[in-house]
Amino acid sequence: QLRLVESGGGLVKPGGSLRLSCAASGFTLYHYGIGWFRQAPGKEREGVACISSSGASIDYSDSVKGRFTISRDNAKNTMYLQMNSLKPEDTAVYYCAAENLGGCPRKIALKRFDYWGQGTQVTVSS
Question: Which is nearest to 77 in space by CA: 122, 115, 39, 104?
Fold first, then answer.
């Protein structure tokens, strides 16, 4: 069974950092493009970052560019999202996803991603 399981969410103060992890099981992430998304209460799910299977293509939403870093460790079958300089507006449920064509879709389009994790809550508050 294909699964993605996020971890690392929690409560952090503004300006703080968190690292989210997403472990894959039942399939090998090496061939997949991967992405991180988030959904705040009352808002649509939005793309945050993606990276292609080769690592050659990486994209970030404007709202997180320069603060978040997406990475992958194919040996561990795990992806990461390092989040620095967190702001209250970063508060959301964060989801990881995998895209079976191996790309980093333009505008980190949700519909291109095939497999999703269950989400982890990130709350930025003083």
Answer: 115
Residue showing tokens 């103060």? 13
Measured at the CA of 110, the angle between CA 105 and CA 113, to 5 degrees, comes to 70
Task: Give me the numbers of helices (H) and strands (E) for the chain, helices first please.
Answer: 0, 11
User: pLDDT tens for residues 89-114?
Assistant: 999 999 999 999 999 988 899 999 99
β-pairing verdict for 58-60 and 120-124: unpaired
User: In a 10 Å sphere around its CB, with 0-12 CB exposed, 13-18 middle and 19+ buried, how is residue 72 labelled?
Assistant: buried
Looking at the DSSP assignment, which residues form a beta bridge with residue 106? none
> Which burial class, exposed, middle or buried, applies to 126 when counting CB atoms under 10 A from its CB (0-12, 13-18, 19+)?
exposed
Query: 36: number of CA atoms within 13 Å, CB side?
Result: 33
**Ranges of the chain whose pLDDT falls below 70:** none
Nearest CA to 97 among 35, 19, 40, 28?
A: 35
CA 86 to chain centroid, in Å, comes to 15
25-115-71 Cα angle (round to 5): 70
